[in-house]
Amino acid sequence: MPLKNFSLKSPFIFVFISIISFHALANPVTPKPRPEQPLTCQRWRMLEITFTSAKTYSHPFEEVELEASFTGPNGVTIVRPGFWNGGNTWKIRFAPTITGKWTMISTCSDKSNKKLNQVSETIQSIPYEGNLDIFKHGFLKISENRRYFEYADGTPFFYLGDTHWIYIHERFNSSNKPGIASEFKYIVDKRVQQGFTVYQTEAIQHPHEQNSVLGSGHHKGADEEPFCNFRDGVDDKDMPGFENIDRKFQYIADKGLVNANSTIVWALDPSEFPAVYTEAYMSRLGRYWSARFGAYPVICINIMIQLQSTNGLLQLRR
Question: Do 255 and 299 belong together in one domain?
Fold first, then answer.
């Protein structure tokens, strides 16, 4: 389902800011229950649900779309897109906004795939047990006067953050500084100690010398972090890069910071590789990125995708 009002009318990259979520009403379907016990998840924390496809696709990123409708207490409904995670594995990530029982029903564009289409799950959302404000008060939304960010429960939010341009390449399990076990964790922990509330991340996938015709420098260490190469499509080779980003999003969230994320790729990539970054391709990348990272506490700075704020969370305009 490509996005329709997506535009590339200018050589410049247009950036639109929106808070992330996918709230929508779902059509009734007949679920196929899974044998597992009901899942349990704390309110506002990300829950990952894994599917194993009954079919193998030649180009799963292009061929199949998966989403799920989550219905909670008082009829609250959240629709979350799913994403391909390599091989025959698909995932849906979901963060319950209220406590109580939720039911999930999946929908796949390939109706014949019984392991992806109309699969049901039950989730029990329990109160958050920690002391981090972003989970105590809920994800961010825009204030009623549309001038400020605030938490879901209306508590004011003070935005204090700085940009980490190469977080994708910051070492997660090593560093170049004696006594520091993780370059990435050290920086995140330092910002928490300093009272920051936001960790701004820039999606620079390629090392500097490969990033752009205007780039310089290099990343050639033995412990380089994996990254995604969207210049040749999305395939299994990109999964280590996504997993690298996953663990960093998770660590940022676990420390209670909101991730202000510049999504997908460095801004010059679409202008320097226009034959690759078509409107349809960027639409699909945008949907994938939101599916993979939209259940974390994130403010999403998207490249060339018009976004609309809905109840403080992301709604892609179709």
Answer: yes
């599917």: which residue's tokens? 51
In a domain, 69, yes or no: yes
Helix or strand holding residue 227 (H, E): none
How far is it, in rounded angstroms, from Cα 138 to Cα 311? 12
Q: How far apart are CA 282 and CA 271, in angstroms?
A: 12
- In angstroms and rounded to an integer, the radius of gyration of the C-alpha atoms of the chain is 19
Please give the pLDDT value at position 55: 97
Q: Angle at CA 15, nearest 5°, toward 11 and 19?
A: 160
Residues 284 and 300 in one domain: yes
* Closest C-alpha to 225, from 247, 242, 244: 244
Same domain, 185 and 270: yes
Section 90-116 average pLDDT: 98
- pTM of the entire structure? 0.82
Alpha helices in 178-278 (DSSP H): 183-193, 208-211, 239-254, 268-272
**Helix runs in 225-278, H state only:** 239-254, 268-272
At residue 18, does pLDDT exceed 60?
no
Spatial distance between the Cα atoms of 48 and 51, rounded to a whole number of angstroms = 10
Angle at 96 between CA 94 and CA 102, to 5 degrees: 95
Q: Do 13 and 99 reside in the same domain of the chain? A: no
Helix (H) or strand (E) segment spanning residue 205: none
Place of tokens 């196929």: 32
Smallest CA-to-CA distance from 218 within 206, 227, 228 is with: 206
Task: State which residues form the domain around 174.
Answer: 1-21+139-318
Which of 107, 128, 149 is the C-terminal boundary of a domain? 128
Helices (H) and strands (E) in the chain, counts: 7, 17
Residues 184 and 256 in one domain: yes
Q: Please report which helix (H) or strand (E) contains residue 141, including its range.
A: strand 140-142
276 and 285 in contact (C-beta within 8 Å)? no
